[in-house]
Amino acid sequence: MNTGPGRPSPAQDPMAPGGAGTAAPPAEGRSAAGASTGPASAGAVASPEGRGHTGITDRVLERVAACAVREVEQVGGAAPRMLGVPLGRDAGRADPRVSGHVEGRMAIVRVTLSVAYPAPIRQVVHRVREHVVSRVRELTGLEARQVDIDVTRLIHPDEPGRRVR
After folding, report:
1. For every one of its 165 residues, what pLDDT tens digit does the chain have, with 9 covering 90 and above?
2. Which of 37, 53, 69 delimits the end of a domain?
3. Compositional bias (Low complexity) spans (predicted)?
4. 24 phi and psi, to 5 degrees?
5. Are residues 40 and 18 both part of a single domain?
6. Cα–Cα distance for residue pair 117/119, rounded to 1 Å
7. Is 43:85 a contact under the CB 8 Å cutoff?
8. 72: Cα within 13 Å, side-chain hemisphere
9. Cα dihedral: 106, 132, 85, 93 (round 10)
10. Could you report the per-residue pLDDT of 8-33, keeping only the tens digit for each?
11. Which domain holds residue 127?
12. Which of 6, 32, 96, 107 could form a disulfide with 113 if both were Cys (CB 3.0 to 4.6 A apart)?
């Protein structure tokens, strides 16, 4: 083997057989991959913290919150806007716009929606906020400490028999 200048000796070469990089034999009761192989771990269950981590992304938080908003009565979506001007009249059938951010176990959610007229806006917004907090906690385990809600439009109920000609 070439052990000239700049080349490690076989004992120092991690790739050489028996070199410094060779893994030690697995501990008793464990395979090289870490799987249980015998009675040493039979019946032993790792604590939840020791089994891994489940991460909730911002996008998942947004999806859960949007579904929660749609579950509340008298709430509609928000038509997309450009320079503050709505780009459609069908806001009631659109989805609410939701953005969210996860920071550790805390979540911040911002919702843009419409409310059916003549529903009491404060009460509807309170129901939406409580429902979003509840569903986010129930489905993700995150604590939604801040839920900001913007009402951008009132939706008038369809009146049968009345049409513009």
Report:
1. 555 555 555 555 544 555 444 445 555 544 455 554 555 555 678 777 788 888 999 999 999 999 999 999 999 888 666 666 666 655 556 789 999 999 999 999 999 999 999 999 999 999 999 999 999 999 999 999 999 999 998 988 774 434 444
2. 53
3. 14-47
4. -70, 155
5. yes
6. 5
7. no
8. 29
9. 140
10. 555 555 445 554 444 455 555 444 55
11. 58-155
12. 96
Answer yes or no: do 49 and 103 share one domain: no
**Which tokens in the block code for residue 156?**
């008038």
**Other Cβ atoms within 10 Å of 142 Cβ, number:** 22
Distances (CA, A) of 115 to 34, 41, 123, 143: 55, 57, 11, 25
Amino acid at residue number 6: G
Three-class SS state of 71: coil
Using a cut of 0.90, tell me whether the model's pTM lies above it. no
